Design the sequence.
């Protein structure tokens, strides 16, 4: 086969995985979109409360997601080796760790009032945010189990399972939001707090649906997945699981926590600015699902290829994936710039909020390019089970460069820029650029290392 045909073959393989993964991620993140729109229609204060509460919740949630992301490369490499027992052990171990981790993380969301007061959040917003966080905290242990099942399905190249579960959960979220926010069916109107309960109910729905689908799968490794007896060697695997998953969780926490800190700093500018920032950030989060889904597909492809010991194919997989990420980022950047007024109008009818949101959407468009490159480089590294060094690189980019620069530009008039949210978005863009460069360099190092280790004992490179 020619080089072009090999690249096209790999692109098709990645797209077959990316499509269902993208739909699954869009279905899940659309819950945040639904929460934002429906809370905004209730009141501007409730929208601000949900924005602040979600900014506090999401780093904890994505830490849990990252921790359980270890399931995907473990399952993908075991599936590549044809080791069904290792597939089952990885998923079952992930379920146990996800449940325990979720329970331990719940109290972090119960005692946030002093933190919000210290950060200068508006007093009218804090009580609603507290009720929202208490409600949504019950989704953490459920989410931990769901992420383990999702990682298992993705690692087995069955992303359609999490896609079906995601859309089922989205439907539950819409109905629950309508009933709980506005007080239907004889229930009291909970406003922003209703968004938290609706999200917890939807996570429970996704967990149940995913368990049903994966339990009925006939792929080797999914039999007796929900048996009560413990797996042999499972306890000895906990440390290895945490060594792989903990750096992923911390890296995602570092990435998302900077958005939380920025949102809390921006809260000092009032409810209208918070609402505009949340609109831009929420829409950017929806668009982010495209490169993130591709990065998960890359993790699966890289892990499966390593399990099959076809090391020479890795460079082509990585190059094809990063090229696809760049093309997608260019398209999303142009789309946001072109349709930013229409996007802002979807979220709010307030002219002042809409005007500022259009400006911030322009910044969100610019960071599509480095964001797509860094997240897909990270996906390649996860497939190689390389997680500790990327954690340090992310820490340097986000907390060493992005946050200090954003604080200086957004609050301290660095460069004579007027205080406001724009300076923080500039800091975010700079952090993403640095992260893309550092992680891209790490990918090149890992590919060379794997090729050297393989030596002459690799299989012929065939599609």
Sequence:
């Amino acid at each position: 086969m020619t080089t072009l045909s090999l690249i096209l073959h790999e692109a098709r393989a990645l797209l077959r995985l990316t499509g269902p993964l993208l739909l699954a991620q869009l279905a899940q993140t659309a819950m945040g979109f639904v929460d934002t729109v429906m809370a905004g229609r209730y009141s501007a204060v409730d929208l601000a409360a949900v924005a602040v509460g979600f900014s506090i919740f999401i780093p904890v949630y994505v830490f849990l997601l990252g921790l359980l992301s270890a399931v995907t490369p473990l399952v993908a490499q075991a599936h590549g080796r044809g080791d069904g027992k290792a597939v089952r052990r990885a998923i079952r171990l992930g379920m146990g760790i996800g449940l325990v981790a979720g329970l331990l993380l719940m109290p972090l969301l119960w005692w946030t009032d002093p933190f919000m007061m210290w950060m200068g959040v508006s007093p009218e917003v804090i009580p609603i945010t507290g009720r929202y966080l208490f409600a949504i905290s019950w989704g953490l242990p459920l989410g931990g189990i769901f992420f383990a099942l999702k990682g298992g399905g993705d690692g087995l190249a069955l992303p359609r399972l999490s896609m079906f579960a995601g859309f089922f959960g989205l439907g539950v979220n819409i109905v629950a939001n309508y009933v709980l926010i506005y007080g239907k069916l004889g229930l009291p109107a909970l406003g922003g707090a209703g968004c938290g309960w609706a999200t917890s109910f939807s996570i429970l729905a996704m967990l149940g649906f995913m368990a049903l689908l994966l339990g009925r799968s006939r792929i080797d490794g999914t039999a007796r997945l929900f048996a009560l007896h413990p797996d042999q060697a499972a306890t000895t695997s906990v440390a290895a699981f945490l060594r792989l998953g903990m750096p992923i969780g911390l890296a995602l926490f570092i990435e998302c926590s900077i958005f939380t800190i920025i949102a809390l700093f921006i809260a000092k500018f009032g409810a209208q600015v918070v609402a505009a920032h949340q609109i831009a950030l929420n829409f950017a989060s929806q668009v982010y699902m495209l490169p993130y889904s591709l990065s998960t597909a890359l993790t699966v492809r890289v892990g499966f290829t390593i399990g099959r010991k076809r090391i020479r194919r890795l460079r082509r997989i990585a190059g094809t994936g990063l090229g696809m990420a760049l093309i997608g980022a260019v398209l999303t950047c142009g789309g946001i710039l072109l349709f930013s007024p229409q996007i802002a109008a979807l979220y709010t009818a307030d002219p002042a909020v809409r005007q500022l949101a259009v400006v911030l959407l322009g910044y969100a468009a610019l960071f599509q390019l480095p964001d797509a490159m860094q997240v897909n480089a990270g996906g390649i590294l996860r497939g190689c089970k390389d997680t500790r060094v990327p954690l340090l690189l992310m820490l340097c980019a986000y907390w060493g460069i992005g946050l200090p620069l954003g604080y200086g530009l957004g609050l301290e008039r660095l460069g004579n820029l007027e205080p406001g949210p724009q300076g923080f978005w500039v800091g975010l863009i700079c952090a993403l650029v640095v992260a893309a460069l550092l992680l891209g360099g790490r990918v090149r190092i890992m590919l060379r290392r794997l090729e050297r280790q393989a030596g002459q004992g690799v299989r012929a490179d065939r599609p």
In short: Confidence is low (pLDDT under 50) at residues 456-463.
